[in-house]
Amino acid sequence: MFKFQIFYQSKKNSARIGKIITHRGVIETPVFMPVGTQGTIKTMPPEIVSSLGYSIILSNTYHLYLRPGVDVVYTLGGIHKFMNWKNLILTDSGGFQVYSLSQFRKITEEGILFKSHIDGSEHFFTPVTTMEVQKKLGSDIMMVLDTCIPYPSSYEETETLTNLTHRWAVESLEYWQRHKNDKQAVFGIIQGGMYKDLRKSSAKFITSLEFEGYAIGGLSVGEPLEIRNQMIEISVEYMPYDKPRYVMGIGTPLDIIDAVMRGVDMFDCVLPTRNARRGTVFTSMGPLSIKNSSFKYDTLPLDPECDCYTCRNYSRGYLRHLFHAKELLVYFLLTLHNLFYYAKLMKHIKNAIKNETLEDLREKIAQIYLNSN
């Protein structure tokens, strides 16, 4: 079972509030998905992630395929039981990870030949094998294999790789039509690089295929924010109104609000968790680096306006000490704070959509984060 319902459409922009209804539960949109690359949100027990309000997370096909291996996950009860996560899981196809390991891979018409970053062993991903792996993992939403296009790329290269994504999408859908079940859904991925006509043609082609949802891929690869927003606008124009729209891999607070205003429903990004492990947190005053010497004697919490567990109990001075001492507790405390911040941000976004004040929230977030760069 997979249904998408829209409950509120903004009168001022394209933002909307909806629900994705599945056999495992309901996701309220717009929704942010924390990234659990290897079957875990790093440093975080799944019960705590769930308690923060997260109803869906993302795991990575490429990493789970290499380690521990899909047969291990399958034998141990599937990805949900394996990692003790009771809510929804979206798995990406591994295309982006293979793209990011460009020195270890070769793209062919049939798929992607790549070397493991773990032991150098060779593997071959095809549209069908990535679907088979995700089916066996048991994720709730599966992504088709696509080609993530570097920025900048020539028009010719972008067109070639986009057409390859289209052919792979057809292969993936044909496989799924033969093997589909009522517990998993499949999303297609729009590519097209940063060229308006290629984005348009890709959006038209991918959305002509009967997927349960559609994603905008190939962004957050170094392009300017203005171009990114243009590509989102072009893609959304051709995406069905009554199916979920997902922008892959973008995740600053401003990125999310900009995309929501353009009609996007789903997001994922490593920023809140990765930045935490590097000592940077999101606050109501902008980003804060706990590494700074100015916090050595600071008795304030990370964010005086935040009531997360970390901010209720620990000072900046203590957290700075933990970070420089490389105490493991600090990674949990900072990650918890950032995930709390993102969960609260999504609540603010939903309320702003209902109250028709999303532009005001966008201006507030822009002032905080653009002025801090």
Structure description:
With 373 residues, this protein is α/β, with parallel strands linked by helices. It has 15 helices and 16 strands. The chain folds into two domains: 29-269, Alpha-Beta Barrel (TIM Barrel); 278-373, no CATH class. It has helices at 46-51, 61-66, 70-75, 79-83, 95-100, 127-137, 155-179, 196-207, 225-237, 253-261, 271-277, 309-313, 316-324, 329-355, 358-370; strands spanning 2-9, 16-22, 25-29, 31-34, 56-60, 88-92, 105-107, 112-115, 122-125, 141-143, 185-190, 213-216, 245-247, 266-269, 280-281, 288-289. The strands form four sheets. An eight-stranded parallel sheet has the order 4-14-13-12-11-10-6-5. Strands 1-2-3 form a three-stranded antiparallel sheet. Helix 7 (155-179) packs parallel to helix 8, helix 8 (196-207) runs parallel beside helix 9 (225-237) and helix 10 (253-261) packs antiparallel against helix 15. The chain is globular and about 60 Å long.
Q: Level of helix content?
A: 40-55%
Q: What is the CATH H-level superfamily of the largest domain?
A: Queuine tRNA-ribosyltransferase-like
Q: Using the 3D structure, state the CATH architecture of the largest domain.
A: Alpha-Beta Barrel
Number of domains: 2
Number of helices: 15
> What is the strand content?
15-25%
> From the alpha-carbon coordinates, what is the Rg to the nearest angstrom?
20 Å
